[in-house]
Amino acid sequence: MRRPVAAIVAAILLAGCGGPATPSPSTAPGGGQASGTQGVAGLASGSASARPSPTPTPSSAPTATPTPIPSPAPTPTPAPVTLTATTLAVHTPTHLSRMVVFIDGGTLLVCGGWNGSGTTGAILRLDPVAGTIVQAGSLATAVHDAAGGQLGNLWLVFGGGAAAPSAATQVVDRSGAAKVVGQLPAALADHVAGAINGTAVIAGGAGTGAPDPRVLTTTDGVTFTIIAALPVPVRYPAAAVLGGKLYLLGGQTASGETTSIQAIDPVAGTAVEVARLPSPLSHAMAFVLNGRLYVAGGRRAGVALKDIVAVDPATGKVTAAGQLPATASDGAAAVIGQKAYLIGGERDQVLDTVVALTPGG
User: Which CATH architecture has domain 83-359?
Assistant: First the structure.
């Protein structure tokens, strides 16, 4: 995890979690130490537990040669639509970045994060339409740079950082209560997760050392299965689910930021690099709105960005789709209906803003 840029000039691409000291742009706050900037999966400085040896990707079972059939016509990628960004009047009670967000009807549960001086366990309920935000409860273990999986009514927070990376899996209910229900195979922070057909897919990040290549799945937060290995292990990538796959865009490798776009298919049990971005990127926020994959903000060579781009994950083609009101990285993104919301994040300091993104110029 990285420290806010206010402390030193430099997650959305990301080796072990650091302590409570003020983070720098190139080091995630309280997570693992980042070798440059972030990735959609997160990390910081310091460290604790030893990183487990990577588990080899399971081999595929042999299959019979299928009878040739005509290939279906490719599904066209929706044309990108410009998004209008508006800063809402509501603000988080404290500056906040690197948190997990769950959608509850028309409201959002914002869990944990980094408040500029330390890790918080607060769970906030944000109503972006009413313009209200209140504390609903607290995590059982305060973390930032964690990953979240929303499996119907089962809301799971995986790992994260504080004084050291955590392996705990916490379940959060809509009342704001939380408890630890399981443990990841190893401590992990600066990672990402996505829900696909009742299964949470967890990838990227690190405990200590270099980014962990293992891709995990779970349906309950208690039992985890290793299904693949990332071809480009990263921390702090941007990530979003589209078409039954979890896409990781950019991130921080052991040698620096990457342009890699990786696709994880939990049904096939594969993780492959499918394309590359035009430029390296980390610590960005990704989301899918009306069938289009967007990436907002992030960092490049330690510098926070304000661009919003539409990305074709099959080709890596990037199309300009707007601008944030100001540069930002390491915030949380969530979509309700026809709007996306970006909460908090970092620039030269941790932010307390909520930005609405609406289709249309």
Answer: 6 Propeller (2.120)
